[in-house]
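For practice. Supply one:
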Amino acid sequence: MDADVRKIIDEKDKKIEELQAKVKELEKKVRYYEIKEIYRDILPEDFLQRLVELPPEVMIIELGRYLRGASAEKAKTGAEKSYKEKEEVTRATEIKEAVTPKSTGFKAKVGLDLNFTQRYDFSGSDVAFLGEDLMKSLGASEGDYIVVQKEGSVNLRVLPYTKPGFIVVPTWVRDKIGAKINDFVEVIKR
């Protein structure tokens, strides 16, 4: 009887080992598909196969190493790509600047002056008061012609003005270029 019991116990142990091996194989397959689904398009197939063969603790460490290395590689290639794009933009900007004429214009705030209004604010007047600082920046002197523009443009003869950063123009000019008091207009030396 002992021999029969021993034989049954051995068969049972053998069957348990076979089933445990199948369970481990199925767990590996499940782990493989779970990882494949989670890290789709991130992990290559050969690395995924090697990863599944490892114990879970080691698998996590190796996965972390791979992802850290991959992100460092992406950052490096991204930096190189960004550098190349910046070079192309710089080159395109240099070409554009070389082709387009440079504007020597400055922004000036439209002001109102009683002295100007009494003397020069009439239809057809071609005089503008321009701040001395802007005149110096433009390289304009009294009597030179400037272009004042916003939505339109007008050529005017310039006279110096004491308030820095301001320009005073006739009413008809403000109407023509679409500017109001305290608006900013561009002033260019002609």
Notes: The longest strand covers residues 153-161.
